């Protein structure tokens, strides 16, 4: 990690035009987590489909822990070709979740690559990053990366590598690439700071002042599924396929309903056939099909696909289900596949809070849906909610307690008819106000206040039989909010983190973090992530935020009838 690297931008050691560009695709977490990530598999397949690109994979060792200072050369070798990071022309990070920013900078340390972009010379591979976390807010990693991909990879990656083949000089290439939609080259953008706060951004060359998000307009081109199987994955014998991209429901806390607009529906039979053909020649056959998407039951083809899968003797696993869409037919297919647990995402502790987040679900509806599922034979229920929503009070928490008491009562009654009782798991997480959503303006609730609410819930609900409680950490939510809402100054936090034994808590104490986590933004404030242009009309997210504060409803994202956000 020496600081003696030169800033020469020639690509002396890069391949000449028409030679294969060697890319190491890195998932900044352990191998079993990486192999269970559909985005990672998608990008691996996409890059290897591009002429003139040779992509290998890397993830951290299975037994890795963040405190590990260094890795052996054996643990640094790629998964397919057994190469070291220095053997590649480009290292590409696929980042889905903000906490993996920490693992990203640790990986750069392991690879002996300087964290600061300006300290690297032509002997270093080009360092790039993409993934959903990156196009939510790329700024925390902006001083680390040569290039960041803003949006969906299909099409964007092809244009990028086609252009890269035409240049031997890295600086000339970067200046040209910065004009491509979805390509963010941070070195050509400078933050404007006033009184310690970012108030804007300027460009040093003639390029757009904001980076336009790249998205796949044609649903016919969507066909995303597992391309490798039988390896040591978190999901073991499961193959994954994308069912929906984006979400119609527009819950105000959720990025999926906004950054992936407009929602699109792939052809499920096409995706399933492609996956079976791709995996057919591999040693181990997938026995479980994981259906992935923000709300998979929105797809009209889902019941037919589910029947096809179960008729083939395979089981189904769902990443997400909305209560409104759990029909008799669908639950029957779920039971036929052998699944005995379902998650009921209420998302808000009270009816008022569910209006605030734009989710119309009354307590009566939730109770009856839980009764219906238990009666059908789902004897293990998970009930998930967020705590710390805008304008949430202690009374909202008390209403959640009363809701769970009602659910527990009907659940036990219905279980008796089955002759046995399973378990209800109550899972609660603090709100992390994410960029790109209406709640991006809102501060996170203070850690002390969240702990007090969790203590109240634990005290009362902990007495109920057949109930398990699970609480997300307010301290971890604090860190995630900082990484989500931060600007380029997060780079200094990363340096402290790398130098102190990878202790995030200690590093947080040495930096001014509250100003990001607890800041209430106004309508006219510049937001660090405003560098990304998602295509919304001016004021759309602010207007919806105000509507949420007043518990107002916003219609679902129907591209045939609605043009409220301005993207369509």
- The helix-and-strand class reads alpha/beta
CATH architecture of the domain at 21-212: 3-Layer(aba) Sandwich
Helix content: 25-40%
Work out the helix count: 18
Radius of gyration of CA atoms, rounded to a whole number: 24 Å
Q: In whole angstroms, how far apart are the ends?
A: 47 Å
Shape: globular
Provide the residue-averaged pLDDT. 92
CATH top level label of the domain at 21-212: Alpha Beta
What is the number of strand segments? 17
CATH topology of the domain at 21-212: Rossmann fold
Strand order in the largest sheet: 2-1-3-4-5-6
Summarize the biggest pleated sheet. 6 strands, mixed
Task: Detail the poorly predicted runs.
Answer: 1-14
Task: Explain this structure.
With 568 residues, this protein is an alpha/beta fold. The chain has a domain of 192 residues: Rossmann fold (3-Layer(aba) Sandwich), CATH 3.40.50. 32% of the residues lie in helices and 16% in strands. The protein contains 18 helices and 17 strands. The strands form five sheets. A six-stranded mixed beta sheet has the order 2-1-3-4-5-6. The chain has a four-stranded parallel beta sheet with strand order 13-14-15-16, covered by helices on one side. Helix 8 links the parallel strand 11 and strand 12. Helix 8 runs parallel beside helix 9. The radius of gyration is 24 Å and the shape is globular. The protein starts with 20 loop residues before the first strand and ends in a 19-residue tail after the last helix.
């Amino acid at each position: 990690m020496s600081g003696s690297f030169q800033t020469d931008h020639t690509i002396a050691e890069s391949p000449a035009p028409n030679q294969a560009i060697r890319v190491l695709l890195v998932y900044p977490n352990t191998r079993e987590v990486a192999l269970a990530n559909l985005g990672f598999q998608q990008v691996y397949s996409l890059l290897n489909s591009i002429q003139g690109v040779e992509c290998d994979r890397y993830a951290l060792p299975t037994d890795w822990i963040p405190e590990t200072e260094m890795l052996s050369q054996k643990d640094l070798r790629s998964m397919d070709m057994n190469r070291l990071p220095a053997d590649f022309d480009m290292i590409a990070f696929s980042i889905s979740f903000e906490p993996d920013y920490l693992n990203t900078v640790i990986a750069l340390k392991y690879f002996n690559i300087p964290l600061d972009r300006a300290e690297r010379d032509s002997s270093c591979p080009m360092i790039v990053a993409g993934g959903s976390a990156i196009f939510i807010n790329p700024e925390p990693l902006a001083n680390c990366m040569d290039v960041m991909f803003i949006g969906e990879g299909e099409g964007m990656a092809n244009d990028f590598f086609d252009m890269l083949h035409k240049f031997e000089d890295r600086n000339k290439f970067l200046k040209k690439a910065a004009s491509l939609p979805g390509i963010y080259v941070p070195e050509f953008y400078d933050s404007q700071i006033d009184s310690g706060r970012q108030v804007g951004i300027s460009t040093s060359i003639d390029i757009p002042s904001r980076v336009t998000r790249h998205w796949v307009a044609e649903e016919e081109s969507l066909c995303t599924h597992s391309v490798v199987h039988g390896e040591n994955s978190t999901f073991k014998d499961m193959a994954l396929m994308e069912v929906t991209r984006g979400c119609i429901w527009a819950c105000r806390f959720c990025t999926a309903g906004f950054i992936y607009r407009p929602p699109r529906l792939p052809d499920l039979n096409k995706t399933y056939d492609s996956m079976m053909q791709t995996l057919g020649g591999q040693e181990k056959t997938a026995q479980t099909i994981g259906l992935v998407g923000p709300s998979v039951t929105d797809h009209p083809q889902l019941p037919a696909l589910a029947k096809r899968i179960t008729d083939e003797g395979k089981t189904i696993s769902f990443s997400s289900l909305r209560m409104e869409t759990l029909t008799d037919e669908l639950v029957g297919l779920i039971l036929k596949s052998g699944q005995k647990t379902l998650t009921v995402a209420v998302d808000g502790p009270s009816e008022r809070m569910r209006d605030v987040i734009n989710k119309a679900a009354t307590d009566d509806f939730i109770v009856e849906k839980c009764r219906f599922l238990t009666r059908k034979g789902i004897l293990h229920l998970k009930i998930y909610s967020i705590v710390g929503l805008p304008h949430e009070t202690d009374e909202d928490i008390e209403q959640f307690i009363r809701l769970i008491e009602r659910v527990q009562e009907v659940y036990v009654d219905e279980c008796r008819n089955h002759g046995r009782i399973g378990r209800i798991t109550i899972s609660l997480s603090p709100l992390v106000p994410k960029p790109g959503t209406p709640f991006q303006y809102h501060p996170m609730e203070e850690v002390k206040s969240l702990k007090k609410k969790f203590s109240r819930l634990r005290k009362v609900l902990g007495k109920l039989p057949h109930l398990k409680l699970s609480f997300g950490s307010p301290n971890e939510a604090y860190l995630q909010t900082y990484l989500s809402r931060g600007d380029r100054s997060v780079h200094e936090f990363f340096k402290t983190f790398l130098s102190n034994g990878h202790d995030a808590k200690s590093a947080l104490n040495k930096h001014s973090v509250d100003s990001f986590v607890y800041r209430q933004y106004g309508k006219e404030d510049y937001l660090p992530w405003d560098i990304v242009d998602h295509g919304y009309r001016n004021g759309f997210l602010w207007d919806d935020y105000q509507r949420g504060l007043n518990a107002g409803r916003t219609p679902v994202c129907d591209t045939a009838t609605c043009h409220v956000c301005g993207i369509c």
